[in-house]
Specification:
By secondary structure, the protein is an all-alpha fold. The chain is built from twelve helices and no strands. Helix 3 packs across helix 7, helix 5 packs parallel to helix 8 and helix 5 crosses helix 11. The N terminus is likely disordered.
Length: 290
C-alpha cells in the first residue's frame, strides 16, 4: 500500500481553476515557450516515425514526392501545346515552371492539412496521455520541409536539364518558403480543434484546396485584368508563392508589399491561433474522451 502511495505522489499534480489564462498573458506565453522547447524531442520522434511509415508502407516510396508535379506538368504542357489552354509567356520553360510551382503549392497544402491530420490521428493519445500538444504540430512542420527537400532534387535536375540560370536571389527562396509554410500552419492550427470533433473539416479541406488551386498562379502567370485576375491577387497564397518562384528565376519581386503584408499577418495569426489552440484543446479532449 505504501508503494502505491509513493508512486502516486511522483505524478505531476494538475489543478484546473475557473480563472482564464488570458488574465495572465505573460505567464501564459512563458508556459507556451517552455512547452514548445520541451516538445522538441517528442516532435523529432513523431516526425521520424511518420516519415518512415509514409515511405515504408508505399510501393513507390519516395517517388510519390515526384509524381504529382510531373503528372501536372505533363498534363498542362500537352494542353498548352495543343492550344487547349493559353497560359501566356513564362520566365522559364513551362514544364519546369509548373513543376516548381506545384512543389510550392503542395508544400502549402501539406502545411495546411498537417495540424488537422496530426490531432485527428493522435486523438486516442490526447485523451490518455498528458504531453505538449505543440509536438504534434512541430512534427508535421518538419515533415513538410523534409518532403520539399525531396522535391528539390527534382527541381535542381530540371534546372540543369533546361539550362536555367540561377541568380543570387535563389539563396532567399527558403525565406519565402518558410513564410508559405507559416501561412498554411496558421490556417491548419486554427482548424485543428474542429478537426478532432468533426470529420467534415478534413473532407472540406480536400474540396476547398482543390478549388483554391485554380485561384493560385501555379500553372499560369498572375493575370492582370478581369474579375479572375482580382481574385488571384486577393488570394493570400499568391504573393508568397510568386515571390518564392521569382526569387528562384528572375530575381525581381513583382509584389513586395503584398508579400510582407501576408507574411506579417501569417506570423501574427499563427501566434494568436497558437493561444486559442492551447485554450481550446483541454475542452476538446474532454469532450472527445467523454
Amino acid at each position: 500500500m505504501k508503494k502505491k502511495e509513493s508512486r502516486k505522489s511522483q505524478l505531476p499534480e494538475v489543478i484546473y481553476t475557473p480563472e482564464s489564462q488570458l488574465r495572465r498573458p505573460i505567464d501564459l506565453f512563458k508556459q507556451m515557450w517552455r512547452d514548445l522547447l520541451a516538445s522538441r524531442e517528442l516532435a523529432w520522434r513523431l516526425m521520424v516515425r511518420d516519415i518512415t511509415a509514409q515511405y515504408r508502407q508505399s510501393f513507390l516510396g519516395v517517388a510519390w514526392a515526384f509524381l504529382p508535379p510531373i503528372v501536372m506538368a505533363v498534363s498542362f504542357t500537352l494542353a498548352n501545346d495543343a492550344n487547349v489552354i493559353n497560359v501566356g509567356k513564362t520566365d522559364i520553360p513551362y514544364p519546369a515552371y509548373v513543376i516548381f510551382s506545384t512543389a510550392l503549392w503542395q508544400t502549402f497544402v501539406e502545411a495546411l492539412n498537417g495540424p488537422v491530420q496530426a490531432v485527428t490521428v493522435a486523438k486516442p493519445m490526447l485523451a490518455r496521455v498528458n504531453f505538449p500538444r505543440e509536438s504534434l504540430v512541430l512534427a508535421k512542420v518538419g515533415e513538410v520541409f523534409f518532403n520539399f527537400a525531396i522535391k528539390l532534387i527534382l527541381i535542381v535536375g530540371l534546372y540543369v536539364w533546361f539550362g536555367i540560370s540561377i541568380t543570387w536571389t535563389a539563396i532567399l527562396v527558403p525565406v519565402a518558403l518558410i513564410h508559405l509554410v507559416v501561412l498554411g500552419t496558421f490556417i491548419g492550427v486554427l482548424l485543428a480543434p474542429l478537426g478532432i470533433l468533426y470529420q467534415d473539416v478534413s473532407k472540406g479541406l480536400t474540396l476547398i484546396t482543390g478549388f483554391w488551386l485554380f485561384l493560385t498562379p501555379v500553372v499560369y502567370p498572375v493575370p492582370n485584368e478581369g474579375t479572375f485576375g482580382l481574385l488571384v491577387k486577393l488570394n493570400p497564397v499568391t504573393p508568397l508563392l510568386v515571390t518564392a518562384r521569382e526569387l528562384a528565376t528572375t530575381g525581381v519581386i513583382s509584389n513586395p508589399l503584398g508579400f510582407w503584408v501576408v507574411s506579417v499577418l501569417s506570423f501574427v495569426g499563427l501566434l494568436l491561433t497558437w493561444v486559442s489552440f492551447r485554450l481550446a484543446m483541454p475542452f476538446v479532449v474532454e469532450r472527445v474522451s467523454s
